[in-house]
Every structure is written in structure tokens, then in C-alpha cells.
Design goal:
This protein is mainly β. It is built from five helices and 39 strands. It has two domains: 21-229, Pectate Lyase C-like (3 Solenoid), CATH 2.160.20; 236-363 and 400-421, no CATH class. The protein has a 14-stranded parallel beta sheet, with helices on one face. Strands 3-6-9-12-15-18-21-24-27-30-33-36-39 form a 13-stranded parallel beta sheet, with no helix packed on it. Strands 4-7-10-13-16-19-22-25-28-31-34-37 form a twelve-stranded parallel beta sheet, covered by helices on one side. β1 (22-25), α2 (34-40) and β2 form a beta-alpha-beta unit.
């Protein structure tokens, strides 16, 4: 009986004493391709890709291994998906991945990961790929310090032929940090993703959205920069999203905006900066969103809020040098505006408490005129238009009578924060 038990546990003892191997890949190595190295590797082994160029297509990883590239190594997909990751705990670091062609029948990617938890993708340089990193049904993964650059030629830089740089679908507890994503359809895409963090990323020059949420609840994105995208960020059909200390800059175009909030609830938007966007925030059917301590600077429209938005609170925000601070499509208001700084406020503060003694109505009559006739924009800043806006503020007829800030502050909020007031 004892002999049988000893024989049974021998494999376990052997595995406990085994050490991970380092397998090198190079032209003169025992393994000249990454595919050969993956096939030869055991669980927990390290594969080192030495300097050189490697045509690598559709390598399936079904064991817990790490693959690390040496400086000067290039992995060329030759038009096809490079890595399929199908195991927990896989690590891919310091790899230069190139050339994954557009496909209209499959989602080709430099890395395609499915049902694999605790993956770690770090310091990857991905260029000229349809999708960069595509992760499905995987939890507790980290994607960090990667540079994902799409197709940059004018002929191929089209939304119909471009995938997303970092794309997550049905994932939980993921961390997307310190990445640069450029020239894709969407920079970062979340669909059915929960309890995840997007932090310290640069999303620049993407065709559609710098960041795109769909049906993704309980997530946070903070300290990111969204620059020169078709639109900065779209948060759609989601709840309990924290949006904090991000920059939305130069998202400019006929239908561009810094941030789209559509059908979202119970979320928070604070300490962000919106600068030089066509529309800084466009809110449609958004409920119970707290918008506080943000700066709106030199935008076309700072806030476009539709009549189906209710129970939202806008407090302690700065509105500076925007063409229009607030526009809406209704004469009713179901939201709270309080204690914001409005650069165009001309009220007074007789008691010196820093709060204006008369309310401020931020919606201009001219915004309604432009909605009816776009060419009327040529009249902007004219004395006649200023007179119409003044008359409307005194006796509202078309603009929402209840959309007002009852306690407008006399100095910018962010200036007071810097001074510790």
C-alpha cells in the first residue's frame, strides 16, 4: 500500500522540484521560430526572442508561459493573427508586432486572447494591425506600457478597414494603464466590461472614439488624454462610471465632441478639462450624473444637454471662453446648476462672499436661432444678437426659465483650488 502511494506521488514531487527553462529563439538557436519554442515549452517556461525578424502566424498558446523579446527583434504577422492566447497567466512583454491585415470575415489581431485570466501584456509595440489587442471573456488581466499604432496612410486609414487598438469584450477586473493608442477606429473599446480601470493612457488621432464604452458598468477611467479623435469618449448604456482628471482636447469636427453621455446613470464626472472641442459634453438620456470641478475652456458648445436628461447635478465647474456654455432642445429643465463660474456672468456680489447676488441663465436665445438656421452663425457677437440674448435673459420666452445657476461664483473654481481657498 505504501509503495503504491509513493509511486502515485512521484510525479508531484518531481514537478515541485522542476525549474522553469529559458528557451531562446534565433536563427542559430535550437529553436529558430517562435512556434517551435512554444511547442517545446512546458508550463512556466520563459521564451526569449533574440534580435532578428520572424514571420509568425497563428501561434496558439495553451500553457502558462512567458514570451519576451530582445531589443531589435521584430515579429511579422504576414497579414494574419500572430498570437492566440488560450491559457491563464500568459505573459507577453517587450515584443515588436507588425502587419496584421484587415479582414471583413474575422477579427484578426496582433494578440487575440480568449477565456484566459491573469494575462499580462507589457511594453508591446504593435503597428499596422487590424486589431491590436483583442481580449474576450477574460478577467484580472493587465495591459500596460504598450504602443498600438494603426494604419496611417490616407488610403487605408478608413473606419471600415480599421479595428480597435485595445478591445475588451465580456471581461472583468481588467487594468489598462500607461498605453499609447493611435490611428485606429477606436483607441480603447469596452463592451460588457465591469469593475475595470483605464488610467494614464494617451488616445490620439483615432477615427471614431478615443475611448468607447458599451453596456459596461462600475468602471473608472482617470488621468487619460484624449486628443484629436473623431470624438474623445463615448459612454453609452452604462452605469456607475467614474470619469476623473482626464483631458479632452482638440476633438474637433462637424459632429465631434469631447464626451458623449448616452443612456448612462448614476455616474460621476469630476476634475476633467475640456479644451477646444466642438462640443465638450453631449448628454442624451443621462440620469443622476454628478458633474463637478471640471473646466470647459474654448469649446464651441461646453454642454449640450437634451430634454430627456434628469436629476443631473452640475456644481463647481468653470465655463471659460466657450462660444456657448449651455444649449438644450427643451423649454423645461430637470437638472440642478449651482455654484459654477460663468465667464459671461455680469452680476454683482455686494456682500463679498464670492457668490453672485443674482442668478445666471446660461442658455442663449442665439443657440435656438442657429439650430434653426446654421448660416446665422455669421451674426455671432453682433450687437443685435447680444441685445436679443439680453432681452431673453430678462424675460425668458424660448429658453428654459428654470435652467439657471442660483449661486454663480465670482472667481474660477480651479483658481481658488490652486490658491487653497
Amino acid at each position: 500500500m505504501r509503495k503504491a502511494l509513493f509511486i502515485a506521488i512521484l510525479p508531484i514531487i518531481a514537478s515541485m522540484g522542476a525549474t522553469a527553462k529559458v528557451i531562446e529563439v534565433c536563427a542559430s538557436c535550437a529553436h529558430q521560430s517562435i512556434q517551435q519554442a512554444v511547442e517545446a515549452a512546458d508550463s512556466l517556461d520563459d521564451i526569449r526572442v533574440l534580435k532578428g525578424r520572424y514571420l509568425t502566424q497563428e501561434v496558439v498558446i495553451e500553457k502558462q508561459i512567458s514570451i519576451c523579446g530582445e531589443s531589435g527583434s521584430v515579429i511579422d504577422g504576414g497579414g494574419k493573427t500572430i498570437f492566440y492566447v488560450h491559457h491563464n497567466g500568459v505573459s507577453l512583454t517587450n515584443l515588436n508586432l507588425q502587419n496584421v491585415a484587415t479582414s471583413y470575415v474575422e477579427d484578426r489581431a496582433a494578440i487575440k486572447c480568449n477565456n484566459s485570466d491573469n494575462v499580462h501584456f507589457k511594453n508591446l509595440h504593435i503597428s499596422n494591425a487590424f486589431f491590436g489587442i483583442l481580449v474576450e471573456k477574460s478577467d484580472h488581466g493587465v495591459i500596460e506600457e504598450c504602443e498600438v499604432i494603426g494604419k496611417v496612410t490616407k488610403e487605408t486609414y478608413l473606419e471600415s478597414s480599421s479595428g480597435n487598438a485595445i478591445h475588451l469584450w465580456y471581461c472583468n477586473n481588467m487594468s489598462i494603464q500607461n498605453n499609447t493608442v493611435k490611428f485606429h477606429r477606436d483607441g480603447i473599446y469596452f463592451e460588457f466590461v465591469k469593475q475595470s480601470i483605464i488610467e494614464n493612457n494617451l488616445s490620439d488621432g483615432n477615427l471614431r472614439y478615443g475611448l468607447h464604452f458599451m453596456f459596461s458598468h462600475g468602471n473608472a477611467y482617470r488621468h487619460n488624454r484624449f486628443i484629436r479623435n473623431g470624438a474623445g469618449v463615448a459612454v453609452m448604456y452604462s452605469s456607475e462610471v467614474l470619469m476623473e482628471r482626464n483631458e479632452f482636447v482638440d476633438n474637433w469636427g462637424e459632429s465631434a465632441y469631447g464626451l458623449l453621455l448616452k443612456d448612462i446613470t448614476d455616474s460621476e464626472l469630476k476634475h476633467n478639462r475640456f479644451r477646444n472641442n466642438t462640443i465638450a459634453i453631449s448628454a442624451d438620456n443621462s440620469l443622476r450624473v454628478k458633474i463637478a470641478f471640471n473646466q470647459f475652456d474654448k469649446n464651441g458648445y461646453a454642454l449640450r444637454i437634451m430634454g430627456n436628461c434628469m436629476d443631473n447635478t452640475l456644481e463647481n465647474n468653470d465655463f471659460l471662453q466657450n462660444s456657448f456654455d449651455v444649449v438644450t432642445n427643451t423649454s423645461k429643465n430637470y437638472n440642478t446648476f449651482n455654484h459654477n463660474y460663468w465667464e459671461e456672468y455680469r452680476g454683482y456680489d455686494l456682500d463679498g462672499d464670492g457668490v453672485g447676488d443674482v442668478p445666471y441663465r446660461p442658455v442663449k436665445l442665439f443657440s435656438y436661432i442657429i439650430a434653426q438656421s446654421q448660416p446665422a452663425i455669421i451674426l455671432m457677437r453682433s450687437s443685435f444678437i447680444n441685445l436679443l440674448d439680453l432681452a431673453e435673459k430678462v424675460t425668458p420666452v424660448l429658453t428654459p426659465e428654470t435652467l439657471m445657476d442660483n449661486q454663480p461664483v465670482m472667481r474660477p473654481i480651479n483658481d481658488r483650488i490652486k490658491e487653497g481657498i
